Amino acid sequence: xxxxxxxxxxxxxxxxxxxxxxxxxYRMQQLIKERGKDEFINVRHRTSIYQTIxxxxxxxxxxxxxxxQNEGKPDLIVYEVTDEGRKTAYMWIREMLSTPKQEFxxxxxxxxxxxxLTPEDVMEQFNKRASALEDTLAHIANxxxxxxxxxxxxxxxxxxxxxxxxxxxxxxxxxxxxxxIQTEKxxxxxxxxxxxxxxxxxxxxxxx
Length: 208
Description:
The protein is mainly α. The chain has helices at residues 9-20, 25-34, 46-59, 83-98, 106-111, 119-149, 158-182, 190-204, and strands spanning 62-70, 73-81.
């Protein structure tokens, strides 16, 4: 039977946290941030957690265990994972680890049309991106240093390691493109683009 629970990074995080123990949404949000999972899971909007909880509850991935008093405020609803939710979480983890997925990201989409800009403009934007990547990598290095200093096992830092490797590869590629533009190994202008477009169009014309 097809699994009816909708997959998303936030849904996976909620199911995995509830596999650890029953908890309320505020605690989930705390743990996601405390463990640095917000670097990879978008929980900037608190409503996204509650909307996902509502969907998981509706789809049978979690259930309400009870309520917890909250010092003069409305009681906190405590959720727990169901057998279906537990099975789903393990299935998602295995699938996400083993199967590459075509993801439609902003950067590759923009790269595919960068010829509309001048080489100088592309180099300027790439320099800005390279600077931002260097800042992110410095932040990651600091995170790893702090976590290692606290004795956090490497097992719990693998996603940060992965992010670092991916960003280093992107930075290296961007710097190579900047260098190729500077040395004119990579160059283009509107006349050249028109010539290429005409050439490609002629290749597509049927021969008689």
